[in-house]
Amino acid sequence: MPEPTLLTRRQCCAGLAASLAAGPAAAQFRVEISGVGATQIPVAVAKFRDEDGAAPSLGVVSAIVRADLERSGVIRLVAATNVVEETAQPVLTDWRGRGADALAGGSVTRLADGRLDVRYKLWDVLKNQDLGGQSLAVPLADVRLAAHRVADAIYEKVTGDKGVFSTRIAYVTRAGNRYALRIADADGEGGQVALNSPDPIISPAWSPNGRELAYVSFESQKAVVWVQDVPTGARRKLADFRGSNSAPAWSPDGSSLALTLSRDGPSQLYLIPREGGTPRRLTQSSAIDTEAVFAPDGKSIYFVSDRGGGPQIYRMATSGGDAQRVSFNGAYNISPAVSPDGKNLAFITRLNSGAFRLHVMDVGSATVTALTDTSADESPSFAPNGKLIIYASQAQGRDVLMTTTLDGRIKARLLSTGADVREPVWGPFNR
Predict the structure, then answer these.
(1) Which of 418, 429, 354 is nearest to 386 (CA)?
(2) What domains are defined for the chain?
């Protein structure tokens, strides 16, 4: 087969629509945040005592915490240049005068066994209250993870929602003629290679427990679905049937996966046990059905089908039966992603101009909101708290990963300096 370009789910669906009509170096990321939220909580994160010399190559704890909170879109940072320790008794009225509603400070101490003790405390400036803190003793290599967990704790205390900064993302890179499946922190840093290949890798999908990744590899010169254990790297073939095997999606309980198979003719949806075995056919149409994702309760799936003449998103029960169309904004809608609470559906719409843009639908009201004004968006995936969406796009001629709030007001660009970046998927909490 000829050498393919970087394959993506959008490109695959584009090819579908057309048929209807007729070992690189690890990517490093630079985060750029743009936009202004409608309402933001002002929070000051002071420098932590002794943080500068603790693990300079891994980043300064307070700087990582600030970047996480700013990227959330709901927190506005208040300037804080001085050190505030967790044992201090700060004059909170002074911070109120600076416009802060909350103040965080802490320290980083090297322990006798070589680990770092990362401590923080949060104060409610408006109520003049100590909101408590935490101590995290971690190996030197986990200082970034400790900082992310501090940011998670601050975010939850300030907003009432669980933070996602200590979670992970998976994505695919291409550098030259080499492809890699990578796993990184939610900010794109700390990347590790799960798989290197001279052949394309697409459609990574996290298991609900965060231990396994399913993906599609073309290393056999055809599309085959693999499942890989993240901690050990061990992997196994899940689906290598006649024809194409693609688009894996885990059930919420992790017991099975939905797949797109062409073993019996046109691409249809099947359900297969996580251990493999005989798949059960879900759709019985003469159309092309693909890109299934489960609703959070596991009782229904959303998927893409051309049964109406062009790619649109449908919903059906996992037990079978009729499918109902759910996307009506335009002639071409693909790549559904469901929020963890089931209330929002993200997807990609191709406009009449040819631009591919990210949209989100309120499932209850069917109201659709455009989140971007770019032209090459693809592969949306919700954060496990449902407050952010990660997706791939292009900016200034570069392949980038982006995050956006659900109103589209705050975006963060994870700009790779080392490779084309595509196919992001946000992992679960469970780290």
Answers:
(1) 429
(2) 9-30+165-426 (2.120.10.30), 39-159 (3.40.50.10070)
